[in-house]
């Protein structure tokens, strides 16, 4: 694997400079991001940060995948993966 990577559920995902998390995950074949706190499946939808359908955790903080720029070494997880 070449280039910069972040971690999605412990798996390295490559991205291009300036790419959003949602775009990088989509390019890696990941189209759903797990369940939110209400049990609804999260996914890419509006792409502008309005619908909140793509929420996930980035280094422990809830973010929208579609408007969060990928950075090397980020730890990205589904919302339901955290038990606190
Ligand atoms: S896809 Fe709507 S907020 Fe990200």
Question: What would you note in describing this structure?
Answer:
- The protein is mainly β and 84 residues long.
- The protein is 8% helix and 33% strand.
- It has one helix at residues 21-27, and strands at 4-8, 11-15, 32-35, 41-43, 55-58, 61-64, 75-77.
- The strands form two sheets. A five-stranded mixed sheet has the order 2-1-7-5-6, with helices on one face. Strands 3-4 form a two-stranded antiparallel sheet.
- A hairpin with a 5-residue loop joins β3 and β4.
- The termini are far apart.
- It binds FE2/S2 (inorganic) cluster (FES).
- FE2/S2 (inorganic) cluster is lined by residues 44-47, 49-54, 64-66.
What is the domain tally?
A: 1
**Contiguous runs where pLDDT drops below 50 for at least 5 residues:** none
How much β-strand is present in the residues? 25-35%
Bound molecules: FE2/S2 (inorganic) cluster
- In the CATH scheme, the class would be Alpha Beta
CATH architecture: Roll
Structure in a nutshell:
By secondary structure, this protein is mainly β. Helix content is 8%, strand content 33%.
Features:
84 residues, mainly beta, Ubiquitin-like (UB roll), 5-stranded mixed β-sheet, two-stranded antiparallel ribbon, 1 helix, 33% strand, globular, binds FE2/S2 (inorganic) cluster
What layout of secondary structure does this protein have?
Layout: E1 4-8, E2 11-15, H1 21-27, E3 32-35, E4 41-43, E5 55-58, E6 61-64, E7 75-77
Parallel strand pairs: 1-7
Antiparallel strand pairs: 1-2, 3-4, 5-6, 5-7
């Amino acid at each position: 694997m070449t280039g910069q990577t972040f971690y999605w559920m412990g798996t390295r995902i490559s991205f291009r400079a300036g790419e959003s998390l949602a775009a990088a995950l989509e390019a890696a074949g990941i189209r759903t991001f797990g369940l939110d706190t209400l049990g609804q499946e999260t996914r890419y939808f509006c792409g502008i940060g309005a619908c909140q359908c793509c929420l996930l955790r980035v280094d422990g903080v809830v973010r929208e995948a579609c408007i969060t720029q990928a950075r090397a070494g980020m730890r990205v997880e589904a919302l339901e993966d955290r038990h606190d």
